[in-house]
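hey can u check if this looks right to u? its 274 residues, i copy pasted from the old doc so theres a chance i mangled smth
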Amino acid sequence: MFTLESKVALVTGAGRGIGREIARTLAGAGAAVMINDLDPAPAAETEAAIRSAGGRAACLAGDITRPEFPQKLVDAALAALGGLDIIVNNAGYTWDSVIQKTSDEQFQAMLDIHVTAPFRILRAAAGHIREAAKREIAEGRRMMRKVVNITSIAGTDGGAGQAGYSSGKAGVIGLTKTLAKEWGRYNVTVNAVAFGLIETRLIQPLVPEGGIEIQGRRIPVGVQPKMLEAVKAMCPLGRPGTPQEAAYAVLFLCSPLSDYVTGEVLTCSGGLHF
């Protein structure tokens, strides 16, 4: 029905989970993909998987919350793959606590990764997008480009114990709706996908030895087993989604099927709302 051949996509947080499936799915539809992840080894694994399947990919590992890195990442995509047509701001993690136990550092970290980093990436890409669009419009061509920001039902509905995460995920919705208004004249659609419970390491049962390492700090991630079962029971479909199912929702918003959809939040949660 469609192809993404000739398109170049940038996907952050593409070393694991949903991000890896998004990168692989876009590549499977024909796009060349610039892969970013904080950790070099998983990023390289995603690149290798795409290449082994016959796709085009490049990779730049690094921390997108560093102020200088988003510009470096955008420049690397343009240099390695020759363009930039699709941006998926997917990177993120949870660092949960009830509000009285949430430190300033913890709250700020959630804003930095979920809204400030996407803002900086889009700002870094703005010059290329504007100039390319102006050139195409002058030539009488309409070339559509796509931005998909990943949010959560914690951002649309709020999540108990997630003041920072919910605030960051809500903030990126505001960024999405604003950029949809600013960039429509450049033939760019800007949308968000709000995920519910998706099978990634972030929803594994919480155990003392679990967690992820961010900037030298061990961050506990996971869900209490009883809470996980309760949330599953609340979901109309009765189960978490798979990373592939999550990636298909993103693929729709990156494809020509959504060329007249912009400024929207697509909820991909199996019907679950908090």
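The mean pLDDT is 94.
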